[in-house]
Specification:
By secondary structure, this protein is of the alpha/beta class. It has three domains: about 240 residues, Rossmann fold, CATH 3.40.50.740; about 220 residues, Dimethylsulfoxide Reductase, domain 2 (3-Layer(aba) Sandwich); about 120 residues, Beta Barrel (Barwin-like endoglucanases), CATH 2.40.40.20. Helix content is about 30%, strand content about 20%. A six-stranded mixed sheet has the order 5-4-16-15-14-6, covered by helices on one side. Strand 2 and strand 3 form a beta hairpin. Helix 9 packs antiparallel against helix 12, helix 12 crosses helix 13 and helix 15 crosses helix 17. The radius of gyration is 25 Å and the shape is globular. The structure holds ligand MGD (2 copies) and molybdenum atom. One ligand MGD binds next to helix 16 and strand 15.
């Protein structure tokens, strides 16, 4: 038996350092790499990675569409024919419309490879092609990426999980750590804190596995109303004199404006727990309890999920969570946190496949890409799009408003994707090129902490598949810029170059160990600023934590963070959330029965809401929104907050003859109207009606 170090490169971002116990061309077992330390924990998706590797429906041959889009009618073809076909179509598009008529889609999937990167490989290719229409921000983090630099002067924030050993209180605000990970070192660390008696409060509309197994307390809140709850917590902190005045004075700017808003001086509305209860559904006495505990316990790590910012007004929740950690003196303090995503601190320096600038310099927001396709310049977008190049993404299914996305794909003159499976997006592409999995190639992967991983090839590629990098080398050659693309390097040559340019001392040792740890595993962002704010000012206009920002106001928001009202209608009276499944990564794994069977798609609904509608466990229900309708089983449960329903995202769409979706693919119901000013995703702000089918 061989023990082969590899890194799980699924898009949860945890970046787990794993070992494949390997014999007779088979992985017998996946375990943790002991060099990553005692807190590393893999998860079911990484342990069971072989199920995707050997799935019956892996694509093995290039496909060219022969029937209507979406029909699944393709012919299998040779690489030569497929690549000639792609090259000639791309050249035609460039000649007729200019290169910016090509929109780049995808980029997650297996994106963290330094070489096999589903963004760098394609962006490099399209830049050499002459340019393209790119996208800014992601489905994941648009609102936080947008708002955080205004407050903290950077997007590099958070803490290493090891630094939490000193925390006295943890608040997981919309963070489902047990299912979603937030790095590979956090869950075990939190478990240990809990066993030492540290309280772990989970603020969530759903009793998740995190609430059940990691939390000590569940605070219920309606989705998209976290900013109101945060304001009321701040109100209570102020009222009880539990804010750290010296800290606020020394390290922040503009807190007084927020305080005037919270007390009601600005708009006549004090943001009391009663005010918040009416908005958030959180009982006012529960808000008082939370604020008191938070204000009296130091240091506290407030760790928000990304969920709170994938809502209408998500930017405000991002800014307020930093404001709360400021008010309580917890930023830059060991055991505290910056109130942002667990960590966006950089890992050890490492090279990666260079991405030249887009010669066209054109970008559209990721969240509204179908509008860019359908409306083009006439709709105020910078280009008229005629083709899509999709690598490492299933955006037709994962983007909001699937019916709109289908229209967008149907309007194209040409579309191509690289895929492992015939996903809903692949079904709408003219050409599908079969790719390797990360088990079939060597790569260097950035981990979700201060470490970097070498992922060794475990299997030879199954017949006739190629990596994205190899595909682009071959296409570039056909299109006359092969040397510029590869720079004459082999794949191994690139990886060696990345290590040469890095702090990792020895390539062979790195490859053998599978991991290189950065020096400090207990980093707390902004600790230098807290130690000496004059010497290490923040990159904000005041040099301090910018609670109130006139620059932000000029982009169309409020200078200080506020609650932006959410509305419900009689027609769509239920609030729906669309979180991640434990057994999938987004839509990845949906096609694999073993994973699907472990968490059947069902609509979670509270017994009171179910009873009003005559719904009982297991009954078929019709969920409707202005965008579409989904037919699915009901799961009646008190694990759901009353007034809120939940359908996990990521099921591959399938429609019946009446145009109703029947797999539970939730983006049939979601809207492309973004949260502003970030133009970000709002897939937890969905209003629906539910009825017995
Ligand atoms: N197993 C698994 N892990 C994943 C992924 C996956 O698909 N599967 N995807 C990865 C990716 S791409 C990303 S971007 C991250 C995303 O990470 P998140 O955005 O944090 O994940 P979600 O599952 O959407 O939401 C987390 C929790 O927040 C709750 N929630 C929903 N809306 C609200 C709200 O408005 N307020 C509050 N307080 N809580 C709310 C949900 O019930 C859920 O349990 O996760 C990564 N990890
Ligand atoms: N309603 C709702 N919608 C959501 C979300 C939500 O929470 N709710 N989450 C959003 C978020 S945060 C995200 S990140 C997106 C994710 O959406 P996508 O970025 O579309 O991610 P996946 O659905 O995982 O699709 C990734 C695809 O990449 C393929 N792939 C894997 N490895 C490789 C490779 O090496 N090369 C190539 N070419 N392909 C590869 C996989 O087979 C898979 O089909 O979804 C968004 N959509
Ligand atoms: Mo994401």
């Amino acid at each position: 038996m061989r023990r082969i170090p590899f890194a799980c490169n699924l898009d949860c971002g945890a970046g787990c350092a794993l070992i494949a116990e390997y014999e007779n061309n088979k992985i017998l077992r996946v375990t943790e790499n002991p060099l990553a330390g005692e807190y590393l924990a893999g998860c079911i998706r990484g342990y069971q990675i072989d199920r995707a590797q050997h799935a019956q429906d892996r694509l093995t041959k290039p496909l060219i569409r022969t029937g209507p889009r979406g029909s699944g009618e393709y012919k299998e073809t040779t690489w030569d024919e497929a690549l000639d076909y792609v090259a000639s179509n791309l050249l035609k598009i460039r000649e007729q419309y200019g290169p910016e008529a090509v929109l780049h889609l995808g980029g997650s999937g297996a994106s963290r490879g330094t070489l096999h990167n589903t963004k760098n490989t394609v962006v490099r290719f399209l830049s050499l092609y002459g340019g393209y229409t790119g996208r800014f921000f992601s489905y994941s983090t648009a609102a936080t990426t947008y708002a955080t630099p205004f407050v903290l002067g950077t997007n590099q924030a958070g803490v290493d999980a090891d630094s939490l050993e000193n925390s006295k209180l943890i608040i997981l605000w919309g963070a489902n750590v047990v299912d979603n990970r937030f790095g590979s070192l956090l869950e075990k660390r939190l478990r240990e804190l809990k066993s030492r008696g540290v309280k772990i409060i989970v603020v969530e509309p759903r009793r998740t596995r995190t609430v059940k197994t990691l939390g000590t307390d569940w605070v219920q809140v309606y989705p998209g109303t976290d900013s109101a709850l945060m304001l009321a917590v701040l109100y209570e902190l102020l009222r009880n004199d539990l804010v750290q005045r010296d800290y606020i004075e020394k390290y922040s700017f503009g807190f007084n404006r927020l305080e005037e808003y919270v007390t009601g001086e600005i708009d006549g509305v004090p943001k009391t727990p009663e005010w918040a209860e009416a908005i958030c559904g959180t009982p006012s006495n529960r808000i008082r309890w939370l604020a008191k505990l938070y204000g009296e316990t130091h240091p506290t790590a407030l760790i928000p999920g990304l969920s709170i910012q994938r809502t209408l007004g998500g930017e405000e929740a991002v800014r307020l969570s930093v404001a709360l950690q400021t008010a309580t003196g917890n930023i830059g303090v060991t055991g505290g946190s910056s109130g942002t995503y667990i960590s966006t601190l950089p890992g050890p320096a490492m090279g990666s496949l260079p991405m030249p600038e887009n010669p066209k310099g054109i970008e559209v927001p990721t969240y509204t890409w179908p509008h860019a396709v359908l409306e083009g310049k006439a709709g105020g977008f910078p280009s008229d799009i005629k083709a899509v190049y999709n690598v490492g993404g299933n955006y037709l299914n994962q983007g909001s408003d699937i019916k709109l996305n289908i229209k967008a794909f149907e309007s194209l003159e040409f579309s191509v994707c690289h895929e492992r499976f015939l996903t809903p997006t692949a079904l709408y592409c003219d050409v599908v090129l079969p790719v390797t999995t990360f088990l079939e190639r060597d790569d260097i992967i950035r981990g979700g902490g201060n470490f970097i991983l070498y992922s060794n090839k475990v299997y030879d590629p199954i017949s006739d598949v190629k990596s994205d990098y190899e595909i682009f080398c071959l296409l570039s050659e056909r299109m006359g810029f092969g040397d510029a693309y590869s720079e004459g390097r082999t794949m191994d040559g690139w990886l060696r170059k990345f290590v040469e340019d890095s702090e990792v001392p020895d390539y062979e040792e790195f490859k053998q160990n599978g991991i290189h740890l950065g020096l400090d595993q207990k980093r707390t962002a902004f600790s230098d600023f807290i130690e000496d704010p004059d010497k290490y000012p923040l990159n904000t206009p005041s040099g301090k934590i910018q609670i109130s920002s006139e620059t932000y106001a000029r982009t169309g928001g409020s200078a200080f963070p506020v609650y932006k009202p959410v509305s419900l209608s009689e027609e769509y009276p239920l609030r729906m959330i669309t979180p991640k499944s434990r057994y999938r990564i987004n839509s990845t794994n949906y096609n694999i029965a073993w994973f699907r069977e472990r968490e059947e798609q069902a609509l979670w609904i509270h017994p009171v809401d179910a009873e009003k509608r005559g719904i009982t466990e297991g009954k078929q229900v019709l969920i409707s929104s202005p965008q579409g309708a989904v037919l699915i089983e009901a799961h009646v449960t008190e694990d759901m907050m009353e007034g809120v329903v939940c359908l996990l995202e990521g099921a591959w769409m399938r429609f019946n003859d009446e145009g109703v979706e029947v797999n539970g693919s939730v983006n049939v119901l979601t809207s492309t109207v973004p949260t502003l000013p970030s133009h970000g995703s709002r897939t937890h702000s969905v209003n629906v009606q539910v009825q017995l089918a």
